[in-house]
Amino acid sequence: MENKCPNCGGSEEHLNRIYEAKKNFPKDEHIQSLSDFYKVMGDQTRLKLLMTLEAGRLCVSDLSCALNMSLSAISHQLKVLRTAKLVKTTKIGKEVYYELDDEHIKDILEKGLEHIKEEH
Q1: The whole model's pTM is what?
Q2: CA-to-CA distance for 88 and 85, rounded, in angstroms?
Q3: Which of 7, 32, 86, 120 has the most CB atoms less than 10 A away?
Q4: For residue 41, what pLDDT is reported?
């Protein structure tokens, strides 16, 4: 007798896919971290900051100018991005500069935009 999924009656092939999916499933703490990551990325202002920083290292004043927002609003969002390890800082003299933490962030932004621009 053929093995079937007890919920949908799917074939053994479906059961094999379910097994493969579960076998490769990340740990719960990784899922939680990924969820937190997407929550941070889910804010328009933070996305604009990250996209602006794709051009390179900028200070809070530069970012404030680029996004036409107050220094305090920019600083608040940068703190969230730093905590999430999406941006890093470099101090040069008295000025603090922000930049993307690594190339992965740029890749994620580019892939996301590529996906939403696809015509289906």
Answers
A1: 0.83
A2: 7
A3: 86
A4: 93
Rounded to an integer, what distance in angstroms lies between the CA atom of residue 15 and that of residue 9? 10
CA–CA dist 49, 21 (Å, integer)? 35
> Residue by residue, what is the 3-state secondary structure of the chain?
CCCCCCCCCCCHHHHHHHHHHHHCCCCHHHHHHHHHHHHHHCCHHHHHHHHHHCCCCEEHHHHHHHHCCCHHHHHHHHHHHHHCCCEEEEEECCEEEEEECCHHHHHHHHHHHHHHHCCC
CB 33 within 8 A of CB 85: no
CA gap 3, 116 in Å, rounded: 39
Q: What is the mean pLDDT of residues 84-102?
A: 95
| pLDDT tens for each residue of 29-74 | 999 999 999 999 999 999 999 999 999 999 999 999 999 999 999 9
Domain 44-120 fold is Arc Repressor Mutant, subunit A (1.10.10)
